[in-house]
Amino acid sequence: MSIIINKNFDDNKDSWNIDVHGEIDIYTANELKDSLIESVSSNTKDIILNASNLEYIDSTGLGVLIGILKRLKINEKDIYIINAKQNVKKIFNITGLDKIFKVEG
Questions:
Q1: How would you write 61-89 as a 3-class SS string?
Q2: d(CA 89, CA 77)
Q3: What is the Cα–Cα distance from 31 to 15, expressed in whole angstroms?
Q4: Does residue 91 contact residue 62 with C-beta atoms inside 8 Å?
């Protein structure tokens, strides 16, 4: 499966809006990592990751998000996971990452 990443900076909310379509796994995680690093390197702000079209995330994908979150926390910023499907939320709950990321909706 492939991944489609749409991103834009929301001046009103002063945050990155990232829409992810598809699956974040060992095959697509580097594409997500490169895209997020590019965004936060140019403008370190909160990330709002819309997961409404995210079908699956594995440990590699979670590792990418943790790495980006570490970069953001230096500047007291966060990653918000919004509109996640039940199976994606379950992965965050099982791993305990729902306590580290802001999982909403």
A1: HHHHHHHHHHHHHCCCCCEEEECCCHHHH
A2: 21
A3: 20
A4: yes
Contact 91, 80 (CB under 8 A): no
> Is the pTM higher than 0.90?
yes
pLDDT surpassing 70 at residue 45? yes
Q: How far apart are CA 70 and CA 55, in angstroms?
A: 24
Nearest to 30 by CA among 69, 1, 70, 3: 3
Q: What is the mean pLDDT of the chain?
A: 95
Compute the distance between CA of residue 33 and CA of residue 9 in angstroms, rounded to an integer.
Answer: 17
| Positive/negative CA dihedral, 19, 25, 31, 36 | positive
